[in-house]
Amino acid sequence: MNEASFATAARAVLDENWRGTHSVPAGGLYPHQWSWDSAFIAIGLRHVSPERARIELESLFAAQWSDGRLPQIVFDRARDTDYSPGPSFWRSELIPGSPDASTAGLVQPPIHAWATWLVHAADPAGSRRGGFLARAYPQLVAWHSYLETRRDRGGSGLITAVHPWETGMDNSPFWDGPLSQVSRDVSDFERPDLHHAAVHERPSDSEYSAYLTLAARYRDHDCDDADGQFPFLVEDPAMNALWAESERSLALIAAELGGDPFRHQARASAISAALESLWSDRLGVFVARDVIAGELLERRTVSGLVPMLDADGLNADELRSVLASDHFSVRRSVMVPSYDLQASDFSASNYWRGPSWFNTGWLIAQAFVRGGDVAAARSLGAEMRRVALESDFAEYVDPSSGAAHGTRRFSWTAALTLDLDVELAD
Ligand code: 2M8
């Protein structure tokens, strides 16, 4: 692969999906701004234009709610019917504490402080000149404080997701059990997503009915986290590992600003310690917890590998051996599947039920770097770049063939492979 043509192609995707103040994940399927997409995109954009990367994050921060939450989606009101559920479903303007922008009421995994630090580090002089960290820091502290005070529904020291969408891995097999307990009250809905991706690549109508039922219920309670009867409450390993990682980044940001890093370090250690309660001895990976049923959801998913990022957690040898096992290893491609290859309900094409994704690949590359195995990170990065280019920057791919699935010219695929290209260059 020609590195120069790879970088040119990746930048073209980022330019195409740039909307002046933020990027869309992909032009057709996802016409709004998504929370953790923007963070991943900013990590790649910092190599194209640090200024654009800062604007990407700040446009999301501008949509922060008064309770500190950063919303899952900031809507482009002009695209209401192009994506469901859109701004007229959420009608956030009627909910107390919502911002001027139209947004969803849910959240997504808190990777923002980490992204903010990486964006700063790409251009410290420009960042300091514009006061980027000084503005971002209080907003990020408020975001983490929302998670800590409003979202620890299980009392375990971990964040609880109230909707599969909040984990970013919408139809992960983790959620099959908890979702089976949710009623399907909303039955009349559009599926504009199916104009852009095949039906076997997306969640089913039954899952969508449960998703919309949960979202409508949360909205109808003004997105108030005090709702004691909420029918879906889960703790996800990746979401919590990213929270711990972001808290570590808050310590770096605080130190850079002359503030107190220690309280953030202490919080990060407390989250990492709480994450241990999601370790499954039987499976040898982290798993999720159903807070309502009070039980671990014992499945092997890529989310359960993300806590290996933690430098105090597992080392690179252990990560290598999990990835070499029959559950995660693939013959041709080294891209990591989203679900256990040996599971009877594994699918190579259905969304978060098996295909390989580039954001989780990037996270695993970071874990290798932390674990001291830069060579493994480089080889994963090289494979990801090859597959990204060959698949026209697909949203997700078949783990063994690299065949493209979902939408194409997907922003975080381009951003994160570009980041690995720059950061892991020999
Ligand atoms: C997917 O999720 C959205 C809902 O948020 C959807 O299916 O419509 C997920 O892959 C999620 O992780 C991602 O942030 C979003 C936009 O790329 O798409």
Compute the separation of the termini in Å.
15 Å
Radius of gyration: 20 Å
Note the overall shape: globular
The tally of helices reads 16
Question: Main sheet?
Answer: 3 strands, antiparallel
The helix/strand class is mainly alpha
Instruction: Determine the mean pLDDT.
Output: 95
- Count of DSSP strands: 10
Ligand inventory: (2R)-3-hydroxy-2-(alpha-D-mannopyranosyloxy)propanoic acid
Strand share of the residues? 5-15%
* Unreliable residue stretches: none
Q: What is the N-to-C order of secondary-structure elements (H for helix, E for strand)? A: HEHHEHHHHHHHEHHEEEEHEHHEEH
Helix content percent band: 40-55%
Order of adjacent strands in the largest pleated sheet: 3-6-7
Explain this structure.
It contains 16 helices and ten strands. Helix 5 packs antiparallel against helix 7 and helix 11 packs antiparallel against helix 12. The protein starts with a helix and ends with a helix. The model has no long low-confidence stretch (mean pLDDT 95). The chain binds (2R)-3-hydroxy-2-(alpha-D-mannopyranosyloxy)propanoic acid. The site of (2R)-3-hydroxy-2-(alpha-D-mannopyranosyloxy)propanoic acid has 10 residues, from helix 2.
